[in-house]
Amino acid sequence: MARDELKVLNALDVAKTQLYHFTAIVIAGMGFFTDAYDLFCISLVTKLLGRIYYHVDGYPKPGTLPPGVAAAVNGVAFVGTIAGQLFFGWLGDKMGRKRVYGMTLMIMVLVRLWGLEFWQAADYVWRIILMFGAIPAGMTYYWRMKMPETARYTALVAKNAKQAASDMSRVLQMDIVAEPDKVEEVTKKQFGLFSKEFLRRHGLHLLGTTSTWFLLDIAFYSSNLFQKDIFTNIGWLPPAKTMNAIEEVYKIARAQTLIALFSTVPGYWFTVAFIDRIGRFKIQLMGFFFMTVFMFALAIPYDHWTHKENRIGFVVMYSLTFFFSNFGPNATTFVVPAEIFPARLRSTCHGISAASGKAGAMVGAFGFLYASQSQDKTKTDKGYPAGIGMKNSLIVLGVINALGMLFTFLVPEPNGKSLEDMSQENVEEEEMESRPQHSRTVPV
Predict the structure, then answer these.
(1) Residue 73 half-sphere exposure, CB side, CA atoms within 13 Å?
(2) Nearest residue to 222 via CA among 2, 372, 96
(3) Residue 295: CB partners within 8 Å, gap ≥ 6?
């Protein structure tokens, strides 16, 4: 038999949108902004580092990072991200979301301040690019510290019914009665991450969130990190040897900005508009499907797109892959893990899912770095072996998107359900035993 929901949690579920919600949106958004900024500015930074520190006088091409150095620069960002998501995800369930969020923001700001050294013109540009990410992190810290801990953590994990009721009474501007006895009842039987009960209830869910995020980020990050190479190959950007370092970075940034303005940002807003209407599952499935279609449409006739008169068509098709990534799995893979797992394990499971995504990003970044090299050894970048070429690399990304579509069927649909219903925290073990196995994993 399902348990009655705590009044403080029900108040959150039925509350009308108000200032508290908008503040939470801005704070969460700044966190995502900082994360994305850090990872995507690396492509610009690596260009500058290659031209500044690895220029060879008399060589016809501008300097580029040697393969080992490029792998280290890209890899250290991903390794740090994976470690942080696993550790701070776990810590978020132990110390609370508020404290860990504030801790990570301060670490980011302090690390950035260590980079305050300025050298020659092009040299300080890449430092400024990296340090700019500290600004939103610093601004967000103050506002997050003013907000209370989440009610679900306070009530269901910290088991402090009075504090949860007090916090939510203040931010929702309504009277909420504390229910310490009910909190005690709700939290008395709890299973851990490595228990058989978790495996039975959420094992396939965790496999679904980790696998889809992993597959998405192989395609998404490889496409993003190497936009500059793709655009140069089709002639949308002039050859690097015709530009100085600052000019090259400016033109790459301009191209990336156009892609963002006309594809990635609108894709997110479409998700905002439709996620509670058609649901997470359908959006994710649709996104992977169209990413597959457009990636194959780019890859199979790739030689056609390299002709000057077809560049605009390539850019449009390429932009559509990003549109359906964000109106698709690049939004839902973030959302679903925060909705389907128990409160006491939610941060940990979200961290595991996100770390799996960054592992996919590493595979995509390093794999694409080598695979996209020309099959003709004389046309590869300095220090790189021959690869499978850009066309075949894009075909591989299309196959990966298709796999993401298949693994989406492991992810349940949380739309229209409370977090407790979705995570099955309101369900007694006896009722779980009587439910058919398939009802816990298929979309509803």
Answers:
(1) 22
(2) 372
(3) 219, 321, 394, 395, 397, 398, 401
Residues 6 or more apart whose CB falls under 8 angstroms from that of 349 comprise 89, 193, 202, 206, 209, 337, 341
387 φψ region: left (φ > 0), alpha (ψ -120 to 50), beta (else): beta
Structure tokens at 110: 């302090």
367's tokens: 């794999």
pLDDT tens string 314-334: 888 888 999 999 999 999 999
What pTM did the predictor assign?
0.84
Kindly report, residue by residue over 381-411, the tens digit of the pLDDT.
677 788 888 888 889 999 999 999 999 999 9
Tokens encoding 312 = 């605009």
Nearest to 24 by CA among 214, 221, 168, 130: 168
Contact of 297 with 317, CB cutoff 8 Å: yes
Q: Among 91, 116, 117, which Cα is nearest to 102's?
A: 91
Distance, CA of 215 to CA of 128 (rounded, Å): 32
Residue 6 contacts residue 155 (beta carbons within 8 Å): yes
Distance CA 119, CA 208 (A): 47
CB-CB contact of 279 with 413 (8 Å): yes
The fraction of the chain above a pLDDT of 90, given in percent, is 35
d(CA 74, CA 55): 20
Cβ(212)–Cβ(328) below 8 Å? no
* Half-sphere exposure (Cβ direction) of 77: Cα atoms closer than 13 Å: 23
